[in-house]
Amino acid sequence: MIKIKRLLIAVSALYSLNCINNFATVQIKNEDIKKSQQSRVAESVKKVEQSKIAADSLIKEKTYYAKELLDLEKQAGFNVQPSHYQTLDSLVNKFGKYITIGGVDENSKKIQVINNLVDIDLSFKENNFAYKKDQDLLFYETLKTKNFNAFQFLALYLEIASKKNLPIFPMKIDEHFFARYSLDSLNFINWETTFGIEQPEDLSKKFIKNLTKNEFLSNEYRTIGFYLNKNKQFQKSIEYINKAIEIDSTDYLAYKYLGDNYNALGDYLSAVKNYDMAINLSPSFTQAYIDRGNLFYKKNKLEKALKDYDKAIKLAPENSEFYKIRGDICSSLYSGSVSVWSKKRKPEQAQKDYEKALELILKK
User: Fold this and answer.
1) Rounded CA gap, 171 and 205, in Å?
2) Rounded CA gap, 319 and 306, in Å?
3) CA 192 to CA 177: how far, in whole Å?
């Protein structure tokens, strides 16, 4: 009997110990789950805080974007006067007064933001601002003409955003600029600044680029380089365009302009190298084929010139000048070497190109 009692006591002790172990295991698991949840919450809070810090940093960073365009143009030697800065300040103050901030619930926030953006766009239109499809315009000149490209419209939006402390950031697809208004860390509005319309949230995600301030200003360095080239300040132009390329090595227009400068300076190899880069980055860049083809033609590399004009005509089949010059190249090939010509095409091709050029001219 005593043995049975002892056995029962041992079994009871083992059972209690097992329960305690199970309870401890559950407690440990619960603690692990709790720690994991706390860790995830802490990580989420950290990400939100980082997003807020990044947003605050960007808001500070975009201060004086438009003003900086004037500063850079002035430093490059263009005729930027105090009146241009006054005009800019006047516009920013005038358009900024239409902005309403706060006083609505979260559900109405997006509507308020869109209304603000629409009001800015209407202000532009009422003051006779218009869109000009030209990738390179000097800002101080467009303040007078009121004909802005997408880059300059965005610069004005950013300047207004700075004045009113709005979370608007510069965005880019290829050579087109637009604005993104951040509603919070996850939600935003893509805004077409040239025409005043909302764009889809998933707007070409593969190609869309969120620009830093330097990346935004690289476009201005390129533009300044373009106008310095027009003023025959080739070495200075090269300096500015190289600044643009240092910031954005995918800027095919910058390489093309660099090629133009080296061409003007008589550096044939550097010119071709940069035209090659422009074409590699943008295979449908018609003008790069034309400029490289003209350089080949000038250097009597007729077969290469012919290939470039063939490609240009495929890209722009309604350009009469392209047919005329290709006819000239064909004539030069034929008169220079019949054997080379016979491998390329029939002698009648030059005449056909001249006829096609005349046909397109008469259509106009």
Assistant:
1) 11
2) 16
3) 8
> Contact at 8 Å (CB) between 295 and 307?
no
| Token pair for 123 | 């202000």
CA 158/CA 167 separation, integer angstroms: 9
pLDDT by 10-residue block (mean), the chain, 364 residues: 46 47 49 55 46 46 81 97 96 86 78 91 92 93 95 95 91 90 89 90 71 94 98 98 97 97 97 98 97 96 95 96 94 64 61 92 86
CA 166 to chain centre: 21
Helix (H) or strand (E) holding 332: helix 320-336
CA distances from 234 to 80, 101, 269 (A): 21, 48, 16
Pair of tokens at residue 54: 């990044």
* Pairing label, strands 130-131, 188-192: unpaired
Rounded distance between C-alpha atoms, residue 77 and residue 79, angstroms: 7
CA 363 to chain centre: 37
User: At the topology level of CATH, where does 300-364 sit?
Assistant: 1.25.40
- Residue ranges of the domains in the chain? 1-60, 62-211, 300-364
pLDDT one-digit tens code per residue, 25-47: 545 445 654 555 555 545 544 44
